[in-house]
Design goal:
The chain is an alpha+beta fold. It is built from three helices and five strands; from the N terminus they run ββαβαββα.
Length: 93
C-alpha cells in the first residue's frame, strides 16, 4: 500500500495510521506525533485507490470497526481515535 511517511527522530516503534483527509482528529493526531518526533506512516482512506481499499477493508475487518484515526503500533496494538494518553503510553512518550 502506498503510504505517506513522516520522518521523525523517534523510530523505536512502527506506527501506521488510517486517516481521513478531512478529519480534524486525524489532523490533530498527525500533528501530535510530528510534534513528539515520532516517525509514522499513514494513508488517507478517502484518497485511496481501489487496490488500496481492498487491503484497508481486510485490515479493518481485523479491528472490528471503522474509526478514524485508527493507529496500529508495532502491528499489535490498535488505538481508535485521538487518545493522547493511550498513544503516549504505547509509545513510551
Amino acid at each position: 500500500m502506498n503510504a505517506t511517511r513522516v520522518e521523525g527522530r523517534r523510530k523505536d516503534h512502527k506506527v501506521f495510521m488510517y486517516t481521513l483527509s478531512t478529519c480534524v482528529w486525524c489532523k490533530r493526531t498527525k500533528q501530535f506525533l510530528k510534534d513528539s518526533g515520532v516517525e509514522y506512516e499513514y494513508v488517507d482512506v478517502d484518497q485511496a485507490n481501489s487496490e488500496q481499499l481492498k487491503k484497508i477493508e481486510k485490515d479493518f475487518a481485523k479491528t472490528g470497526s471503522y474509526s478514524y484515526p485508527t493507529i496500529v503500533i508495532d502491528d499489535k496494538r490498535v488505538i481508535k481515535g485521538f487518545k493522547v494518553d493511550e498513544i503516549k503510553e504505547a509509545l513510551g512518550l
